[in-house]
Specification:
Distance between the termini: 151 Å
Largest sheet: 5 strands, mixed, barrel
CATH superfamily of the largest domain: Response regulator
Number of strands: 13
Number of helices: 14
CATH architecture of the largest domain: 3-Layer(aba) Sandwich
Radius of gyration: 52 Å
Oligomer: single chain
Length: 461
C-alpha cells in the first residue's frame, strides 16, 4: 500500500490563528501610528536637493552627518516665509511625520522654518540686498540729485501719527511756497508693501501732470518687524522705477532698509527728509547774495587783468610812441577847432560892430536902399565865411581820419592780427632777434588774441 503523507497542519494553523493584513492595511496602520506619535516635531538639519515646483510646493532633504529624511513645505505654509531656503543652509523646522501610502515612504511635513545662527528677517534682508546689488539697483551712478527749488513734493507715509505732521510743519516753516501731495498708505503689516509700491508708482506716473519734483517715502521708528515693508522687493523696484528722485526716510538714524540703498538719497529721519527738500528761504537769499558778491569780485579781477594787459601794451616797444602821436594829433585837432571857432566869433563881432556903426550913421539920413544893399552883401559875406570855415574844419577832420587810420595800421595790435607775434622772455622783456635765444629757454608769444607759452627746441638757423 502506498504510504500516506501527513498534511502540513502546522503551516495551516499559523495562518489560521493570526490575522493576515493587506499591504494597504499595514501601511494605513503605520501611517496612523506614526502620525499619531510624531505630530509636533522640531528638527534641525541641512537643506539639500531643494526644489520649487510650479504648484508652489517645496521639496527637499533634511540631513545631518549620519542620516537624512525627505521633507515637503506646502504652499499654504511656505508663503509666510520671509527668506528663500537654499542648499547648504542649516535650518530648524517644525512639522509632523506623514506616510505616502502609494510608495510606502514617510516624510516630514514642514509647517515653519527658521535659519540657524541668524534671524529669518536678517537672512531675508541679506538675500534680497545681494540680489538687488548684483542687478545694479544700488549703483551710485544711477542716483539723481534733488532739485534745488522743488515746486511740489509727494509724500508716501501713514495718514495717522506724528510723522506726517512733523514733515508738513517743517516744509511750511522753511519754505511755504512748496506744495505737498500726500499719498496715505499703511506702513506696516500685511499688504503694506503693496500699498507703498503702488503709491510710489502713482506719484511717479503723474509727476509731470501734477508737477511733482521729488518723492519722500518713510515712516517713524519701530522694530525690524515694523519696518519690514520697506525691505520688500516690490517697494525697492518701485523706487528704482520712479521718474523723479526718491528720498527714503525710514525709522531712526541707526535703522537701514533696502529702500535706503535703492533711493536716490537716504535721510536719517522723516524730519530730516523735509529739511533736505525744503530749502529755507533765508538760505536761498543768502546764497544768491553770496553769488552776487562772488560775481562782483570776479568782475573786479577781470577788469584788473585787462588793465594790466593794456598797461603792458602801452609799455611795449613802439606802441607807446604810437599812443603819443595819436594824443598829439588829437590835441592839434582840438586846437584848430578852437581857433576856428574863435575866428568865426571875432568876424561876426566885427561885422556886428560895423552894422551898428552904419546904423547910427544912417539914422539921420535915408540910407534905406544902400543899407539894404549892404545888409545883403553882409549876409553873402557871412554865408561865404561860414562855408569857408566849415570846409576848413572838414578838411582838418579828414586829415585826422587819414592819420588815425595810418596809425591804426602801424599799431602793434593791428600787426599782430595779421599773423605777426611779439616774443618775450620769462621776465617779460622783449626779444628783438633770435640769436639771443638758447636751447630749452621758455618764452611767451603774444598773438592778436592772447599769449602762448613756448620752449626753444632748435637754435636759430
Amino acid at each position: 500500500m502506498p504510504r500516506r503523507t501527513r498534511p502540513n497542519n502546522l503551516t495551516l494553523s499559523l495562518f489560521a490563528e493570526n490575522p493576515v493584513l493587506s499591504v494597504s492595511e499595514l501601511t494605513a496602520d503605520i501611517k496612523t501610528a506614526l502620525e499619531a506619535d510624531f505630530h509636533d516635531l522640531y528638527v534641525q538639519g541641512e537643506i539639500s536637493n531643494f526644489k520649487k515646483y510650479p504648484s508652489g510646493h517645496w521639496y527637499f532633504t533634511l540631513k545631518d552627518a549620519n542620516a537624512q529624511i525627505s521633507a515637503v513645505f506646502f504652499r499654504n505654509w511656505n508663503r509666510l516665509l520671509r527668506f528663500d531656503p537654499e542648499n547648504g543652509l542649516e535650518v530648524r523646522v517644525r512639522g509632523r511625520l506623514s506616510v505616502w501610502e502609494k510608495s510606502g515612504n514617510y516624510q516630514l511635513n514642514v509647517e515653519s522654518m527658521e535659519p540657524v545662527g541668524v534671524g529669518a528677517l536678517q537672512l531675508a534682508f541679506e538675500q534680497l540686498a545681494r540680489k538687488l546689488q548684483e542687478e545694479g539697483l544700488f549703483d551710485e551712478e544711477r542716483k539723481r540729485p534733488l532739485p534745488v527749488l522743488p515746486r511740489k513734493v509727494g509724500i508716501v507715509t501713514s495718514r495717522q501719527g506724528a510723522v506726517i505732521q512733523d514733515m508738513l510743519n517743517i516744509l511750511g516753516r522753511r519754505n511755504s511756497s512748496i506744495d505737498v501731495l500726500v499719498a496715505p498708505v499703511r506702513v506696516q503689516g500685511a499688504g503694506a508693501a503693496v500699498e507703498i509700491a503702488q503709491a510710489i508708482k502713482t506719484l511717479s506716473d503723474n509727476a509731470a501732470k501734477f508737477g511733482i519734483d521729488a518723492i519722500i517715502v518713510g515712516r517713524g521708528g519701530g522694530s525690524a518687524e515694523d519696518l519690514w515693508a520697506f525691505n520688500e522687493e516690490i517697494v525697492a523696484r518701485a523706487i528704482h522705477a520712479s521718474k523723479v528722485p526718491v528720498i527714503s526716510a525710514v525709522g531712526h538714524e541707526t535703522d537701514y532698509t533696502i529702500a535706503d540703498f535703492v533711493a536716490d538719497l537716504r535721510a536719517p529721519t522723516p524730519s530730516a527728509a523735509a529739511e533736505l527738500v525744503g530749502t529755507e528761504a533765508e538760505e536761498l537769499r543768502a546764497h544768491v547774495e553770496g553769488l552776487l558778491a562772488h560775481l562782483g569780485r570776479a568782475m573786479d579781477y577781470y577788469l584788473l587783468q585787462r588793465r594790466h594787459e593794456l598797461r603792458d601794451l602801452i609799455e611795449s616797444q613802439g606802441f607807446a610812441e604810437t599812443i603819443g602821436t595819436i594824443i598829439k594829433l588829437g590835441s592839434r585837432v582840438r586846437e584848430l577847432e578852437l581857433r576856428a571857432s574863435m575866428a568865426l566869433k571875432n568876424n561876426l563881432h566885427h561885422a556886428k560892430l560895423r552894422v551898428e556903426a552904419a546904423h547910427r550913421h544912417l539914422t539921420s539920413a535915408d540910407w534905406r536902399v544902400p543899407l539894404a544893399v549892404a545888409e545883403a552883401q553882409l549876409q553873402v559875406s557871412h554865408q561865404r565865411l561860414e562855408r569857408a570855415m566849415q570846409a576848413k574844419i572838414e578838411r582838418k577832420w579828414h586829415q585826422l581820419s587819414l592819420t588815425t587810420g595810418k596809425l591804426e595800421m602801424l599799431s602793434p595790435l593791428s600787426v599782430l592780427s595779421r599773423g605777426y607775434t611779439i616774443v618775450r622772455d620769462q621776465t617779460g622783456q622783449l626779444i628783438p632777434n633770435g640769436a639771443t635765444l638758447q636751447l630749452g629757454q621758455k618764452i611767451t608769444l603774444r598773438f592778436g588774441d592772447g599769449d602762448v607759452g613756448c620752449q626753444v627746441t632748435e637754435p636759430l638757423k
